[in-house]
Amino acid sequence: EIGGRIAKAHQGKGLGTKAFAATADFAKNVLGVKPVAKCYKQNKASYGMITGAGFEKCGEDETFYHFEYVK
Q1: Does residue 33 register a pLDDT over 90?
Q2: Cβ(55)–Cβ(21) under 8 Å?
Q3: How far is the C-alpha of 47 from the C-alpha of 67, rounded, in Å?
Q4: SS3 category, 52
Q5: What are the residues facing 40 on neighbouring strands?
Q6: What's the pTM?
Q7: What angle do CA 59, 64, 68 make, to 5 degrees?
Q8: Which H or E run includes 57?
Q9: Would the pLDDT of 59 be above 90?
Q10: pLDDT band, residue 71 (cuts 50/70/90)
C-alpha cells in the first residue's frame, strides 16, 4: 500500500501522476504484483492522478472508486 501528498505549491504539475505511475510500473514489472488503487469518490484530484498513471476504474462501492493497472 502506498499513499502520499503533494505540497500545495507543487500541485497540478503532474508530479503525483508520474510518481504513482513509476511505482505501479515497478510493482508490476519488477515485483510481479498486480497494482490496484482506490480513492474517495469526492476526491477528483486523486481520481485524475490514478487514471493518468495508467489505471482504469474497475468498480466502486459506497465510498470508493476502485482501479486496476492496465498499462
Answers
A1: yes
A2: no
A3: 9
A4: helix
A5: 64
A6: 0.89
A7: 45
A8: strand 55-60
A9: yes
A10: confident
